Input
Amino acid sequence: MKKALLPTFAALGILALVAAFVFVYVTAKNADSETASSTGSQELASTVASDSNYVDNVGPDAVTIVEFLDFECGACGQFYPYVEAMREVYEGDINYVVRYFPLPSHLNSMDAAIAAEAAAQQGEFEAMYQRLFETQGDWAGGTPPQTDAFRALAEEIGLDMGAYDAAVADPATQARVEADFDAGVELGVNSTPTFFVNDEYIETSRLENLPEAVDAAVKG
Output
């Protein structure tokens, strides 16, 4: 039987950071969030599309977590190590889906999402997703475009650079990112990160809300 997530985080040395995460996450989310035009509905679109990017995929019967994120969002960056720890705790029990929601207020966020999608076309979405967050402090808030920084990450993770450059230049790649954004708006997403567990929106005013929802779904 899986241990509860928060006690397991203690074993991972993370629980001591929870109180700080709560403050930083809520503060950063309030600062980074930008209201998007929204229907206010949570049920008009599917939380997972046929072309969604999975960083964990163990099959259709598993609990599915969907995160709408912005790679330049400070709150998403603060949440990233927490999410990675959660993925480790529930390895083999959950699907984890990442969808793009680049906020217009973050001037490098669309290019970052395009870089991630270009990597996804080579089967390396997870590697780029991780490096974008690991290096967020180096490029986020920098004068756009930061495309050279993203291209350097693509080289670092071993992408075919000709294919990467072609994908970045292809309008279809940005259209794919925008399709995620539009789906998020239809679902009522208006800030990042926004989470769904088995299609149910999870309010994360408390950091513990997400692991509690995942734990309940896995045990259920």
Notes: The two ends are 12 Å apart (CA to CA).
